[in-house]
Write a structure and sequence with these properties.
The structure is a single chain. This protein is an alpha+beta fold. It has 14 helices and 18 strands. The chain has a single domain, classed as Glycosyltransferase (Alpha/alpha barrel), CATH 1.50.10.10. The protein is 39% helix and 12% strand. The strands form seven sheets. A four-stranded antiparallel β-sheet has the order 1-18-17-16. A three-stranded antiparallel β-sheet has the order 4-5-7.
Length: 472
């Protein structure tokens, strides 16, 4: 993913960001910043009704304003819906980058799933995302980001030493890229009971997912994937001929990149392997209950149990301060990387992704480590505290991590604290950002980052439905 420079609040209008000051009916503190209705990419009556309900029934008017801006941001600004070969097809950009990430596109529309039964057009839109993701996986299961135009040649073609095909924006192998589409498909089915997405193309894409996971266990050889980039950024390239540092072949899946699109240090990325277990469990249920496909069911179950055993044996340590906890990365040879990154899957997100219960002792210990100064990418300053990562640099806190902390918390005080931090660090823009400087939220990266916006909406909606008193 492209590196982002600091954006200051004063530069938003000059950068083309819609800022209409003080229209009729709005307080000067809460200007109209949501894109005008005539320019919105997709309109959903049920989403608008939900926005109105939340706005009118919570006491914190700034949070209500942020919710109105952020929750529909994916639909307002990033989706391109069409019908291709008689099937819905939805291309979803991340925001300020005109490419579709398998991870981001899934996460961006996931919070809208509960509304699908009340809005058939929204249901078709999300069905179109699933169909488009299937096309992407069939084009190349090792790629993380794609173009709508299948003939477009990526700018990275000049610098990346890998098998870069037309239609691919970036080819960074990340386990989560294949997990997210399964998660989206599974919950789409569970909520709508629509099994039509599980057609022959979807089935073939899943065979490709299983094949890729098994190749990247590297039990017999290094596998077909390698990646090098001509760059001065160490986190953008993979060492040793593009295959990464040595590992002991223990059954874990190698991931050359993290969900931040930064290269791993040790290729066994534990949060992503945990997420793979969750996705494989979903896939085996679909194979058994819907597709009646014993081949895919058995392969999914076999991989699921292999990963479970390997994570237990190599992904957990006994820390002298925090006790039994998950590591971020390992090589199976005794080396561990103890940290966490803001991007999901992360160690912090393991309960959100349904890998671990929020009360599970190992997860609780891990969470305590992640939210401490012992995590080298946990930053604290005058503006707030939270996890960042190498992608945006030192002292840059990601709202994603604050949101995820709130989503995974079982403590009202902590949830309220997360909400307050998000409220005071949007820099007056009315939107979430990729990251902000720990001492000054007006220094931030990415003014248009739809994943963070929509996830913030999911967080507020969860609080509204479960702990409404915290929004007073």
């Amino acid at each position: 993913m492209q590196r982002r420079k600091f954006i200051h609040q004063s530069s938003l209008a000059s950068a083309g960001f819609f800022v209409a000051r003080y229209p009729l009916g709005f307080s000067k503190d809460f200007p109209l910043v949501r894109i005008p209705e005539s320019q919105r990419r997709f309109k959903s009556p049920v989403i608008e009704k939900t926005i109105d309900e939340v706005k009118n029934n919570i006491g914190n008017k700034e949070i209500a304003w942020l919710f109105e801006n952020c929750f529909p941001n994916t639909l307002d600004t990033t989706v391109d819906f069409d019908t291709v070969d008689g099937k819905p097809d939805t291309y979803v950009i991340t925001g300020d980058i005109d490419a579709m990430w398998l991870r981001d596109s899934s996460a961006q529309v996931f919070p809208y799933l509960p509304f699908c039964n009340a809005d058939k057009d929204l249901r078709q839109l999300i069905k179109g995302v699933i169909n488009r993701q299937v096309k992407c996986i069939l084009l190349d299961p090792y790629a993380n980001a794609f173009y709508k135009d299948a003939s477009k040649i990526s700018e990275w073609k000049k610098t990346d030493i890998t098998d870069m095909k037309a239609g691919i924006h970036e080819r960074k192998w990340e386990i989560d890229s294949l997990c997210y589409p399964i998660r989206l498909s599974y919950f789409y089915w569970k909520i709508t009971s629509d099994v039509s997405v599980f057609d022959d193309d979807w089935k073939e894409a899943m065979r490709s997912v299983l094949k890729t996971f098994k190749e990247q266990q590297r039990l017999e050889n290094e596998g077909p994937y390698h990646f090098e980039r001509t760059t001065s950024w160490a986190t953008d390239g993979v060492p040793l001929g593009g295959y990464g540092y040595p590992t002991k072949k223990v059954g874990l899946i190698h991931s050359m990149f993290r969900p931040s699109d930064d290269a791993t240090i040790f290729p066994f990325l534990i949060p992503s392997n945990c997420f793979a277990m969750v996705a494989l469990n979903y896939l085996s249920e679909i194979a058994k209950e819907v597709m009646k496909n014993n081949e895919i069911y058995k392969q999914s179950q076999s991989l699921y149990y292999a990963l479970g055993e390997a994570i237990s044996n190599y992904g957990i340590i006994n820390h002298p301060q925090y006790g039994t906890m998950y590591v971020y990365e390992t090589n199976g040879l005794g080396s561990h990387n103890l940290m966490d990154d803001a991007n999901v899957p992360s160690l912090l997100s393991l309960s959100y992704l349904h890998f671990a219960a929020s009360t599970d002792p190992v997860y609780r210990n891990t969470r305590q480590f992640v939210l401490s100064a012992d995590n080298p990418f946990f930053f604290s300053g005058a503006a707030g505290e939270g996890t960042g990562g190498p992608h945006a640099g030192k002292d840059m806190i990601w709202p994603l991590s604050i949101i995820m902390r709130g989503l995974t918390s079982i403590d009202d005080k902590e949830i309220k604290s997360c909400l307050s931090m998000l409220q005071r660090t949007h820099a007056g823009t009315g939107f979430m950002h990729e990251s902000f400087f720990k001492d000054d939220p007006t220094k931030f990266t990415r003014k248009w980052f739809a994943w963070a916006n929509t996830l913030f909406g999911e967080f507020v909606l969860k609080i509204y439905r479960e702990k409404k008193h915290l929004l007073g």
